[in-house]
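2.7 Reproducibility. Because tokenized structures are sensitive to small changes in the input, we list the exact sequence used for FHA domain-containing protein FhaA, including any N-terminal residues retained from the expression construct. No trimming or masking was applied before prediction.
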Amino acid sequence: MSRITLRVLDGSDRGTVYQDLAVPVTIGREEGNTVQLNDERISRFHIKIQDDQEKVVLTDLESTNGTRVNGEETQLRILRYGDLIHVGRSVLLYGTRAQIAARLEELRANGTPIAEDLDPDELARRAEDRPNDESELQWSEEEELRSTLHIPSPPDVPVGLSPAQAAQFSEILEYLHLRVRVLIQAVAAPKEGEAVEVTFENWQELLDVQSLLAEYLRKIGEPDSE
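Resulting structure tokens (single pass, no recycling of outputs):
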């Protein structure tokens, strides 16, 4: 069973540290949650954090105002140390200082480019510098916060799929691969330093692929939404 640490960087409960919580953990504004936050924009039971296949997974519990991780809207997300969880007006940092420092070292060892090394204390200081009456924090626009640890690296392929599930997953990836390959082949290779231009038709194709991916993400995150 995993045990997690959450630190509130902003919101009414700013500065509170929830240490060594045994999962599953629920977060919301009502009594009965593992973490009860004093935030009127948070749902009664807003998110759940639990173990699944040796991963720590965040699930949005059909909250009214939604959940963002590292500035991105999400319904279902594998958490990594250093992730910023935004619920209502509250922002929580996932992981202890030691866990986040270890992840930074691992990223450096793997040669992953890190835009800026901000330690958790610096994140907390930035939150403390915010005016108390600033109700709408635009964390998604703070590139330093978003790029500190949320490095876009390839995720692991899920394990434990049944043969039918693996075949279906493979079909989805192959379909997307073929569509992207056609679009890439339609672009003439530019000279060094020149910008790549795509036709309007290909631009619409790219938008359609993005739309399809968004639909897949929604169906996976909210399987009962249809």
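Residues 131-148 have pLDDT under 50 and may be disordered.
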